[in-house]
Specification:
The complex is a heterodimer. Chain A is mainly α. Chain A has 13 helices and 12 strands. Chain A has a two-stranded antiparallel sheet with strand order 1-2. In chain A, helix 7 crosses helix 8. Chain B is an alpha+beta fold. The chains are: A mainly alpha, B alpha+beta.
Chain lengths: ~375, ~450
């Protein structure tokens, strides 16, 4: 087993250097940087390798980088278990996945959880809501075909649909992400079985087939059948990153600018006259473009307006509540009647501590409870006190 | 009669006499210059800003005990990050606030103006509860406190950080008449921290297997990304210092990953864990997002370095030339940057990229850093200009034209757009964002391979 130590760093860079010198290192004319020692970076560029006491223009204390320093301690088994909870579709030398926890959940359970904890942002059947992302948009296999829709020829044509079913290469991503990041205002509150159920529901709304069969309401996802799920777009990405020796391929990919629309040129041979194709025309911003900037653009130098005491209800609503409440329980709407029957104090209380149905605690703002109540009053009645 | 009033009158008339005298002397001294004559026509005796005492010069200023952490002049209150609903995934906690590049100076962004991007909101890590865990394909896994981390030998570097979606809203057409929004998904700072290679030197990393490192954040979205080992052993750093002070919360306080030149999203903030593995991870931000769909239907994953890029900073849509007079000598200034290497030159075009002249580089020219460039221009009132800048780097790259880039990448890639961009200067000195490109509805016959 090769062990990493300072000596090996030198060897590794040396190998890297000699192997990629021809492809990667391009000389440049009389610029100050040409004095610096460069190597070839895996991402297609150059790296500034250590040259005595310098890397590029920077001096370093090379002694400091040779010394053995051992701070800290070894984590306990329980600590490792608590934090090492990521999921991977493949383990070392094995297609069996890594970190897929024991548990299970059905589409039906997932649907119930979804309606209670996710729908308020992600819409019915994950169709998306406002600018909240869609989690599905119909049959994944059909949508996968839209990935070649490119509005290159016609800016008005239909574009590609990139949602979980049509685009994501691996199911591990979904489980891992829901468990760690959702529901957005209250992340890491779902049990393992709940995450299985929600992941199963994601397969269902995207009409994914597992072992040749369409995922239906009765489908149960568990650690047993997790790796049977193959996403339609599993092979939709380049360069290849899978396998025990994938880095050389990644390096080769980014060392070929043609793969990603980049241009290389000898500095002194770059085009200086008559460089633009005749067909290229001036394209202006249409219909004023995007102008909804907050705050509006201004380069004026004056004194800021003195803010009134209390809160600017309309401003706070716009920045903190509108993303959800413009669409449901909107300002002054009749739907509030269903909430106020339990008494206004209970409404305040729920809004302040947040609810499982998607109301974040205080809507995510920090202000005094008194000011917050003024805001809630406005939301319910449409009137500012 | 009011004694005080007469005193004041006296004082004023005294001052008037005094100023008349001074003006007369200067006029004599400089007589014959038409410049002064024209100024006298506009200002009469002179500008009140000069003729009167300044209002701030006759009262006490603030005591030194005020603002123990300094804040900008209140007059600078419009120099701020801005956001737009259209760049939010639902709410402003999965969103971005962008840097006012049109007000930027030099190659450092003040910490309060550094662009702010998160996937679950800016979190506030208690530095006392901060722990970093390093594990996976190492003999000796490690837990460090912040204090222990900071005991490793420090490295200080100046690098920009750029969100690869910088300019990504404008693949199909220009949309933002604003430098802040069309290029402000980036900022630059002097970072201080430790090389990861120093940190893991004695942990027994198994190089025969380890190809990838997971970097994971502790924020609400537990943001994580996969990094190839080559970068980890090259210049990857864990940083806690930003422009001479602790990282701002928006930048990942207390510790973030810094991969010089690479996608901002890879520079994981609020860091908690590094794991080494043979097989990669497939985090949400390296599958669902931060992948570049090409016309073939395949998407580039693991697109690391931000490519060579540049922009004209002065003038800009925000800071036009409407106040210039015919014949004024003015500096066209801009920024160039490359995550692939060091800027070697910048060329400037006045006709939208048909013909270029060489601009001058200014100040420090550092690897994977913002670089300032400059060109002196005699402004001709009524001229319509198409200002296009084009940078090159020492990895051999040059910015492509929009047609060259979209020929390979199509227009659905979202990320890593670095084609040259153009400001139109109108006859009255206004500045508009335009693009110079072929409308393929007219020309067809495109290679969509």
């Amino acid at each position: 087993m090769r062990k990493f130590n300072t000596k090996l760093i030198t060897t590794v860079s040396a190998i890297t250097l000699s192997a990629f010198f021809a492809a990667g290192c391009v000389g440049n004319d009389a610029t100050p940087e040409s004095k610096w020692k460069t190597g070839s970076d895996i991402g297609g560029g150059v790296t500034y390798i250590m040259d005595g006491d310098k890397t590029g223009p920077y001096y370093v204390n090379s002694d400091a980088h040779k010394m053995s320093i051992s701070n800290g301690r070894v984590p306990t088994a329980a600590e490792l278990k608590a934090w090492n909870v990521d999921l991977q579709p493949r383990g070392i030398g094995s297609p069996n996945g890594q970190g897929i926890p024991v548990g299970s959940g059905s589409v039906e359970e997932g649907e119930e959880l979804y309606d209670a904890k996710c729908l308020s942002c992600h819409g019915d059947f994950g169709a998306g809501y406002g600018t909240y992302p869609a989690l599905g948009n119909g049959n994944a296999y059909e949508l996968n075909k839209t990935l070649t829709n490119n509005r290159y020829l016609d800016p008005e044509a239909d574009g590609p649909t990139r949602v979980f079913g049509s685009y994501w290469p691996q199911l591990t991503t979904m489980f891992w992400y829901i468990r760690d990041a959702m529901p957005h205002p209250k992340s890491k509150t779902l049990t393992t079985d709940e995450v299985y159920a929600l992941t199963a529901y994601m397969l269902y709304i995207n009409e994914i087939e597992v072992n040749g069969e369409l995922v239906e309401e009765e489908f149960v996802l568990s650690n047993e059948n997790f790796l049977d799920v193959r996403m339609p777009n599993e092979d939709g990405f380049e360069p290849n990153i899978a396998g025990a020796n994938s880095l050389p391929g990644v390096r080769a990919y980014f060392n070929n600018p043609a793969n990603y629309g980049a241009q290389k040129v000898k500095y002194e041979e770059r085009c200086m006259t008559d460089c633009q194709d005749e067909s290229a025309k001036v394209v202006k911003i249409q219909n004023g473009g995007i102008q909804s900037f907050t705050p509006p653009l201004s380069v004026v130098r004056d004194l800021p307006k003195v803010k009134k005491a209390g809160i600017d209800v309309l401003e706070v609503y716009k920045n903190n509540c509108s993303s959800c409440h413009d669409g449901m329980l909107s300002v002054g709407s009749d739907d509030w009647a269903n909430y106020t029957t339990k008494g206004i104090d209970k409404v305040y209380e729920n809004a302040i501590s947040g609810t499982d149905a998607g109301m974040p605690a205080m809507g995510g703002v920090s202000m005094s409870k008194e000011n917050f109540k003024t805001l809630v009053d406005y939301l319910i009645t449409g009137k500012i006190k | 009669m009011d004694k005080n009033k007469s005193n004041i009158d006296l004082e004023i008339s005294d001052r008037r006499n005094f100023f008349k005298k001074t003006v007369a002397i200067s006029v004599t001294a400089l007589a014959g210059t038409s410049l002064l004559a024209s100024q006298n026509a506009t200002f009469g005796d002179g500008e009140p800003e000069i003729l009167n005492h300044a209002k701030w010069g006759q009262v006490w200023g603030d005591p030194v005990s005020k603002n123990l952490y300094g804040v900008p002049s209140p007059y600078e209150h419009n120099v701020i990050r801005r956001n737009t609903k259209l760049l939010a995934s639902g709410n402003f906690r999965a969103s971005i606030a962008v840097t006012p590049l049109h007000e930027s100076e030099g190659i450092i962004t003040p910490n309060g103006l550094f662009f702010s991007r998160s996937h679950g909101g800016t979190c506030f890590v208690d530095p006392n509860e901060f722990r970093l865990m390093i594990h996976g394909l190492v003999d000796k896994p490690l837990v460090l406190t912040l204090e222990e981390l900071k005991r490793y030998p420090r490295v200080t570097r100046t690098h920009f950080i750029e969100c690869p979606a910088n300019g990504g809203q404008e693949w199909r057409a220009p949309q933002f008449n604003s430098l802040q929004f069309s290029k402000g998904f980036m900022s630059s700072a002097e970072w201080t921290g430790v090389y990861i290679k120093d940190l893991i030197k004695d942990l027994g990393l198994d190089l025969s297997k380890a190809q990838w490192m997971l970097a994971e954040g502790s924020d609400n979205s537990e943001m994580g990304r996969t990094v190839p080992i080559d970068k980890v052993l090259d210049d990857a750093m864990l940083v806690w210092g930003q422009n001479g002070e602790a990282l701002r919360p928006e930048q990942g306080y207390p510790v973030r990953l810094l991969l010089p030149g690479w996608e901002g999203n890879l520079c994981v903030k609020w860091l908690k864990r590094l794991e080494f593995s043979q097989e990669p991870w497939y985090a949400k931000e390296e599958t669902s997002k931060y992948t570049n769909l090409k016309p073939s239907g395949k998407a580039i994953q693991h697109f690391y370095a931000n490519e060579v890029n540049s922009t004209v900073v002065t003038p800009s849509p925000e800071k036009p030339w409407t106040h210039l007079k015919d014949g004024d000598m003015v500096e066209i200034e801009g920024l160039a940057w490359s995550g692939m290497g060091t800027i070697t030159g910048v060329d400037l075009s006045f006709d939208g990229g048909k013909n270029y002249v060489k601009a001058k580089l200014k100040g420090l020219v550092l690897p994977k850093s913002w670089t300032r460039w400059s060109y002196m221009h005699k402004y001709k009132k009524g001229d319509v200009l198409l200002l296009t800048s084009r940078a090159t780097d020492d990895a051999g790259f040059i910015q492509p034209t929009i047609d060259e880039e979209t020929l390979v990448m199509g227009v659905e890639a979202v990320y890593h757009r670095n084609a040259v961009e153009t400001w139109e200067v109108t006859a009255d000195g206004k500045v508009n964002h335009v693009q110079i490109r072929t409308d393929h509805r007219e020309t067809k016959g495109v290679n969509n391979a």
